[in-house]
Amino acid sequence: MHPASITIARTHATDIGFRQLVITLDGERLGDLLFGESVQRDVAPGPHRLRVSNTLVWKTLEFDVKTGEQVRFEAINRAGKLTYPLLLLFGAAPLYLTVRRVG
Prior knowledge:
Blueprint: E1 4-9, E2 21-25, E3 28-33, E4 38-43, E5 46-53, E6 58-65, E7 70-79, H1 83-90, E8 95-101
Parallel strand pairs: 1-7
Antiparallel strand pairs: 1-4, 2-3, 2-5, 5-6, 7-8
């Protein structure tokens, strides 16, 4: 039996490129992702819960994995319309988080 696997990548061109993303799978912390990095883990077939946080906003996705399946997610820490003006004005600004299954 081949194990299933999950990969979470942070490589999208629209990622703002700063602030780490905290990745947890089924309540276990897999690590922090900086821009350009990815994390991969073998998992048992069945239901799982992925949680991604930029320490300001979090997203939780529930998904199923079949035996031998390789599931990929893309995590994007992105700016909104007011992010840069607020960053210049206050030194801090809201960031938005997108997590989507890509395979």
